[in-house]
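Researcher: I'd like a structural prediction for the single chain below. Treat it as a standalone chain; there are no partners to consider.
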Amino acid sequence: MGQQEARAKGARAVRCGIYEVDFAAGELRRNGFKVPLQEQPFRILARLLANPGSLVTREELQEQLWGEHSLVDADLGLNTAIKKLRAAFGDSADNPRFIETLPRRGYRFIAPVQPIVADTSVDPMLVATPQSDIVEKTAERTSAKNGSEVDSQAATNGPLAPTEEPIADGGASDNQQFGLSEQAIDERPDRARGATMNGWIASAARPRLRMSLGWSFLFVLLLMIAGTGLLSSLTAWTSLQTFTGRSGAGKGVSIFQSNHRPNRSATGIGGYDLRSRNDQAFAFDYDHSGKLDHLALYRPGAGNFWIMKNTEGAFSPVYAGDGIGGYEVKSSADRALAFDYEHSGKLDYLVLYRFGTDVILVVRNDGEGIFTPVYQQSEVDRAGSAENSNPLTDQTFVLDFDHTGKLDHLVRYRPSTGTMEIWTSSNGRFSRIQTVHVPDDGGNPRDSGAGAEQAFAFDYDHSGKLDHVVLYRPGSGRISILKNSAGTFTPVYQGDGIGGFDLKSANDRALAFDYEHTGKPDHLLLYRPGVGIATILKNTGGNFSPVYAGMGMGGYDLKHASDRALAFDFDHSGNLDHLVLYRPGTGIIQIAYLP
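Model: Treating it as a single chain, here is the predicted structure.
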């Protein structure tokens, strides 16, 4: 055995995309499941992984497998072993992603390789908990279409992400800490309620209370039918539903929520624990379908980067690694987003960047968990930049700059100067094509501190194109919506607040949302984490009016300052008409549907 192979076997395991190679056990695993592989192909794999990216000659491999004086047909045996190894990886000699052939010379392993180290930051109580308890009933979902409750079993593939101390909410109740309204708690199965004696007493008493309320509502309904007729009774019943909290406040239905039981923490989603205050999430087109139906979660500073697939409400990782595409995500200032690099209409590339630096990387998904860089900023790209840094207040987002229906331009907006750098790819090169100055919103001087402007793309004119820019200043109340005409941005809306939402809190957040399930993100969702108010606004000829204004969404109370929301394609329809609501540092995550 060569010295390099001995070093490879000395390592416990390495990760290659969605594959793990355990040298000590002699196993290849895909998403945590063992892939059958015979001894000789595995020995070749170990030899190639001793020096990833380097040539290993056919002669070296033959000598390792059969020795110098073997009587077997070494060429035929090696070719057969290589074919079996490629089959285990789902690889192809014509289009290799893992094992490349160098004709008449040998082979090399070309996929990115990461060592797997023991994770000492995982909560030991979670590690000691039986796997069945961690995995069990990970999601309690309520169907938005038929109102039935369904339990789903979501397998945890691979290790839990590193955990941190959960955020404690002072004197908040257990229900409040989980971000759930009392209505949402009541709608959970009985076994998810209190485990203490008081909890059981409350559970036993609750059906009687509900029964008495039910008879009261039925009596009222019969009186209304007798006195006013069926049509007016239905109208009155709608009002009664609103009064009892079944619609109106907390609009929407929870179709997924992180599992939690009395005296147990929420468990995140698909094995990603969401126990760090730094956790971030966004929607991503992982399989080049044109649908933002995968959920990317990552932990700046720790390096964890996971991508989740949704199979009928059960989430599981299709990628789980330390960093992605060679980018380590080891700074708390690292951020990522989905981007249409190829002008295909698909947000199937990733942009990774770091606040406070000029670092920016674009990576392509080659499948099987392999991400390859296609762009990394050079000194030439940095030349001519307005400022050679990326402050923490800068906003980076994707925009349909030329009204094609494709989010193939990247905008880096600097609130302190009011400048926007527009980037796109052309002829295989990613570069800045324009720097524009954004008109002042008519309010206070520009702020580069905590009250700096936020920015995102919006479908203002119901065209199905995210070709307008929303700029708003949390805490000041100022908001502008800008139209782009050949690179000149002019306001189509400016004001203090919008649609009755005053934007007077520094915590206020907003996003574009497909409220009507039309495939057009032409509504604005504004919410105030820590207080819980939320508003959805419809634009009618430049006049914004609420189609919903209340507390929380889909049973999620939005009562913690760290709460965040994003639009997501939960049902693979191509519409961003579901909301992911999550609370970094607690493990709490919920997905809501607004019928």
